[in-house]
Amino acid sequence: MPRTGHAVASKQRRKQILNKAKGFYGARSKLYTVAKNAVEKALYSSYIGRKQKKRNFRKLWIIRINAAVRKFGFNYSKFVNILKNNKIKFNIKTIETILSSENLKKLEILKLLNVFV
């Protein structure tokens, strides 16, 4: 019985890597070994980037909330403390959206906070 190779599977595996490396500069998109390293690093970096994006947005929301509530004599930590002490459930992203937009809800929320203080 003749021996069979694994050419189909290995070619497919190499092709997948080279397809993921499309658009990379020079040998990084042409040579398998170099492309494999480049793709691995790109996937690793994209994983880290997804985590950093969440972190950076949370920082941004906190900065914006802090700026909005300082106009009314609070800072971020006191603002959050008041919300927690009064058992008000809150979502930082939602609060940031409300406070960053110039509307009446913002004033109503901050008037309520002055009542709680």
Rg calculated over all Cα atoms: 26 Å
SSE arrangement, N to C? HHHHH
Give the class from helix and strand content and strand pairing: mainly alpha
Mean pLDDT: 87
- How is the biggest beta sheet arranged? none
List the helices and strands and how they pair.
Blueprint: H1 7-20, H2 32-70, H3 76-85, H4 92-100, H5 104-116
Helix pairs in contact: 1-2, 2-4
Task: Report what the structure shows.
- By secondary structure, the protein is mostly helical.
- Helices cover 73% and strands 0% of the residues.
- The protein has helices at residues 7-20, 32-70, 76-85, 92-100, 104-116.
- The longest helix has 39 residues, at 32-70.
- The chain starts with 6 loop residues before the first helix and ends with a helix.
- The mean pLDDT is 87.
Short description:
With 117 residues, this protein is mainly alpha-helical.
